[in-house]
Design goal:
This protein is α+β, with helices and mostly antiparallel strands. About 60% of the residues lie in helices and about 15% in strands.
C-alpha cells in the first residue's frame, strides 16, 4: 500500500494532467475517478491521524497534561 505522501503526490499529478485539458474525455474520466479514490484515501488517513494528535496543556499547578487535540467539526 502506498504511503500518504505517495498518494498525495499521485493525486497532484492527476490534477496537473486534468488541468492541462489535453486528454480525451474517456481518459479524463478515468483519471478523475482515480483522483477521487486517492482523495478519499488521503482524507481517511488524515482523520485517523487527527485522532492520534495530542497537545500538552500547562495546568494551574505548573504540571503538564496531555489532552486530545480538539477537532474542527
Amino acid at each position: 500500500m502506498a504511503t500518504f505522501e505517495e498518494q498525495l503526490k499521485q493525486l497532484e499529478t492527476i490534477v496537473d494532467q486534468l488541468e492541462r485539458g489535453d486528454l480525451p474525455l474517456e481518459d479524463s474520466i478515468k483519471l478523475f475517478e482515480e483522483g477521487v479514490g486517492l482523495s478519499n484515501a488521503c482524507k481517511q488517513e488524515l482523520e485517523a491521524a487527527e485522532g492520534k494528535v495530542q497537545i500538552l496543556l500547562k495546568q494551574k499547578d505548573g504540571s503538564m497534561k496531555m489532552e486530545p487535540f480538539p477537532a474542527n467539526n
